[in-house]
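Quick one, T. Sequence first:
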Amino acid sequence: MRGAFAVSEHRAADIFGRRIVLVDDVYTTGATVAAATRALKKAGAADVTVLTFARVVGHLI
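Structure tokens:
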């Protein structure tokens, strides 16, 4: 997932210094959340909080 997400240059000012809430419908390995969080932090987000509605049970992955 590394490099899968990026903040476009014209939206970077919307992210910089902000506290962001990232919503993910299902948490499996955490790769999506990690990649999206990296992109937001790289764009200058002050903090990223993740909300997830469901998770996959470990032995099912």
